[in-house]
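To: structure subgroup
Subject: Chain for Friday's discussion

All,

I'm putting the inputs and outputs inline so they're searchable in the archive.
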Amino acid sequence: MFLGTHTPKVDDKGRIILPAKFRTGLADGVVLTKGQDRSLVLWPMAEFEAAAARVREASQSNASVRAYSRVLFSSAFDQVPDKQGRITVPPALREYAGLERECVVVGNHHTIEIWDTDAWQDYLATQDAAFAELDEEVVPGLF
């Protein structure tokens, strides 16, 4: 499980050093692709394969499924983190997420999200208040 918020930097070659506590779960390879809210999602290879199977099982006659599948897979890059725990964020993905130098790496249970620092702060500014004021069940059976 991936937890916490970390603030590595994007180096001149477009690489990010992943938090040490995440590396064991990523040693078998990762897939980096576009996520929602202009973030990037880093999936451990096995998790991505499971998600891909669910997309494959969805109805391809549904236009939303086809669109989601096209964007998800066409923007995906697979790689293995190097010995220092670095991954390369391709230019197209850096542009999509607005990544320059400052970024935030966020553990999100079974995936990791990578955000531009300002975009993450803007997101939290709107979501923290809503989270604190939740008065109904969002995830069935959690509360």
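Points worth raising on Friday:
The longest strand covers residues 103-108.
The chain has five helices and eight strands.

D.
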